[in-house]
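Just scan my protein:

——
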Amino acid sequence: MFCSVSEKRYEGIYEMLKDLPTMNDTAIQFSLEFFPPKTEAGKEKLQATEKTLFDALQPAYASVTFGAGGSTQKGTRETVLDIHKQGVDAAPHLSCVGATRDSIAEILGGYQQAGIRRIVALRGDMPSGMGDSGDFRYANELVEFIRQQTGDHFHIEVAAYPEFHPQAPDAFTDLKNFKRKVEAGANSAITQYFYNIDAYLRFNEECAMMGLDLPIVPGIMPITNYTNLSRFSEMCGAEIPRWIRERLIAFRDDTDSLKSFGLEVTTRLCQDLLSAGAPGLHFYTMNQSLPTLQIFNHLDLKAEE
């Protein structure tokens, strides 16, 4: 049993956060992220994962990642359309690095015709060996282009970095870049995962001071494997606090204890976030159902009917 959350810690910031608009004023909403499977076995596993999580969480939507330079474009589309057929809103990731305006317009048109109403608009990473960055340099240019091409058809999600983008020269520049995405037409944001709630609260506070009033949904990464988590965190600039890192290292050869500790850490993080007024939770599932399902069940919350 986990300790109850004290709201005293968030006095002041909580008052600011609770007045921000949420994606739904009546209920906390959950969303999920998947990646396109590369094999038939992977497809079967993902379909089972989707069924389990869709039934349990009744998510507002499910996003599907997009490989560097569009390397998984076909797989992304297939996965998105499969989710859409199941009656769940699907949100394809759309990466603009290495893309042309014509290629992005074609992708947008295809999603419009298929009835897709959400997009996660990202700059994306430059694939190794690719020298041409394409027609877009930054995500705000992609967001602006989507609005020009499709008006208000798509609900546009953008990325937010409470611990700041690893390529940003400084924190203030990163905040200004985020503001550009919002002003270009973003509806809401999903954060990079983090384990330091103060980073999220401070990011929201600074956004509010800049006049940004969109929902900023925290991204949640379940902890099930130290080696993978350390590698992912190194790549994306997410900090693993020392007290968590040292415990995970100590549990490295004890899988059950590591997973139990990871579940406690992420559940308490989610409890704190929701108590502080976060508008929802976005789970990075890694195409697995159990870690996300365990967190959801430990939160003892009911998905929106």
